[in-house]
Amino acid sequence: MTPKSDWLDSFVVGLPEKGWFQFLSRHVVVPFWAWRDPKPKLPGGPRPSPQPGENLQRMMNLIMPLKDPSPMGRARAALVVAQNVDEIFAGLDNVGTVHNARFLLLGNNLCMISVYDGDFSNYIRDFIATIGSVFDAIMDLVEGGEELKPTEQNIERFIDWVHAHDLFQVPDFPTDLFALQDQAKGLTGQTHGLRTLPREFILQFHANPDVSLGGGYRAYPGVSASQIRKNHGMGW
User: Fold this and answer.
1) Per-domain boundaries in the chain
2) What's the pLDDT score for residue 1?
3) Which residues of 166-196 are buried (b: 16+ CB within 10 A; e: fewer)?
4) Domain 52-168, architecture per CATH
5) What's this model's pTM, rounded to 2 decimal places?
6) 140: Cβ contacts below 8 Å, ≥ 6 apart
């Protein structure tokens, strides 16, 4: 005979798959939890690390809400990027710590996704020092952007703005997420268990609906581009 506790566990584990429970959770349970135990919105970008290896190939996922998300507004944003692409590439070359970067139009947002080495603030500061005029043109199209112009004269405010619009990067291990929640609320010595979908986990995604999942895979390929080209007889 199956123990009653096992039947109850199976029932609880299966609840998130039930349509009625999903509706109840979305409209009643999660809003009630968020009211009783609100979680702070955690800051975007990678967290400071004393480990040198974790300061390489860091990610920036900058989400900039467009003032005009209509097709015309999106086309205008694409035009600004296209008109300044040479200056953008030259500026990224001059920064010297950027592995790759690209602009995306996603939903109602203009996004800049990049991978860089070193400190976040220094990265943004160097970026604006080299191509601040380009971001001035972009800020004309972004909600609240006019308050940051000219960006070269408002670098510290612009760094704070980018940090606020950079996606929160969820730790690779959920228990680390709980520790960040507690730290933001000034709590110490808390213990959290992992069982299906813990309430603390759900509430953090209520506070941070848009996130970057994990720190991402970072590595250098075992075969260099020059070796690949040589093996294919392509030369340079």
Assistant:
1) 4-41+171-213, 52-168
2) 44
3) bbbbbeeeeeebbbbbbeeeeeeeeebeeee
4) 2-Layer Sandwich (3.30)
5) 0.73
6) 146, 149
